[in-house]
Amino acid sequence: MCLTPFFSHFGENLSEAEPVWLRKSSCCYMIHIYNNFMNSLVFPGNYQLIVPPEPIIAAPGDDVILPCRVDPDWNAMEKTVEWFRPHLRAPGPQKRVEYVYVHRFRKMDRDMMMETYIQRTSLSEGLRHGDVSLRIHNVSLEDNGRFRCFIPNLSIEAEVLLVVDPDFVKMTTAETVPQRTSPTPDEETIRTGESAG
Predict the structure, then answer these.
(1) What pTM was computed for the model?
(2) If we measure between CA atoms, which residue out of 109, 43, 88 comes closest to residue 70?
(3) What is the SS3 assignment for 87?
(4) 119 strand-pairing partners
(5) What is the pLDDT of residues 3-21, one digit of tens each?
(6) Helices (DSSP H) in the chain: which residue ranges?
(7) Within 13 A of 170's CA, how many CA atoms are on the CB side?
């Protein structure tokens, strides 16, 4: 199928100065342009944000990552990525959104962000591959709650729950992990909750 009629305003005005291969294969050249154009379009229904179903638990003072990625891979480097607290609104009649982090034009947009998060937040370094995870440094009890990621270009959003628990103790790599041995049938029953026989 030739798409030359669709691109007739491109194909019929080729000058004599253009390479012979271009003049002889203008139909194929136009298909290549059309394919590149179609591949550059964004169809919002084809993308989704992947976040963990369970909450992220941290102790006050911890640095955390709220995992979030676009599936399938999507280059978010030059796009807008917004993280906000859905239950927080600015005081006043407009009740505008209070942003935790805003990425626009390849950088942080500080003018849109809540003061308390400007020095404590950053995005993943994997933006080129759709990783839009939010890093929060030195979390406090005030950070407890839901965080929503929204990507306007794709019209998709997802929420991550952060639980800041003063009694939470995370296991570090410096701690020794006991060696696992093969369990007896009785131990396996206790671990899985199934009967052995």
Answers:
(1) 0.63
(2) 43
(3) strand
(4) none
(5) 444 434 444 444 444 444 4
(6) 8-11, 20-24, 26-40, 115-118, 185-192
(7) 13
